[in-house]
Task: structure prediction
Amino acid sequence: MLAQPRILSEADGDCVAIERVHGKSPVLIICEHASRTLPENFGDLGLSQEALSSHIAWDPGALAVARGISAGLDATLIYQRFSRLIYDCNRPPSSPGAMPEVSEIYTIPGNKDLTGEERRARAEALYQPFHDAVRALIRDRQARGQDSVIVTIHSFTPVYNGKQRAVELGILHDEDSRFADRMLASAAEAPLYRTERNEPYGPEDGVTHTLIVHGTSNGLRNVMIEVRNDLISEDTGQGVVADYLTGLIQQSLDA
Ligand SMILES: [Zn+2]
Result:
């Protein structure tokens, strides 16, 4: 029998990070694509440094914005510490996109022809513990009488497959649009960015997995926020976007 493929080493540490665990806000911030770190056993997956620092590995700026919102609202933040190139935690294990062989213009040699066992090992090392940790947070909050409104923070590339994207902020939802509707109404009252519903993609693209699993399935309000990553490439932009989103989220909670 072959040894189990080893995903995380001792040195890699835990795949889940939680900040502001006792945050008072009902908002629970989730950032699945926070990091471009690869576990040490994976080397560079056969990719160039350019590819490894691009949006295919992570959502540039998303963690900084998530931290800004977490501070602004006093909200708990949970994020994945490893790159979505190994496992994309916003996809179920059955999805080919969970461990893509191709992402936009890049072929990912280290993800080619993975065996069922390799796929299972990655899901067990990165997907299960991450979503178990989110479930545990929600359960603990329920036990304390604290509401949970699921807010996931992402960023998207301004140019995708050679096409420029005009949208700057996407407010995404699946079947439960309660919180997204309120955020869109607040954004329309105080427009700062070109903001659109379910853009630059939407539920038909499979991006609402986390919302469905933790929000809609539990009857919890939820929203996915997508920020065009050129707006949040440095501190100033990250701060401005985080402040704006903090305001929209707070207004949507109060409405
Ligand atoms: Zn993302």
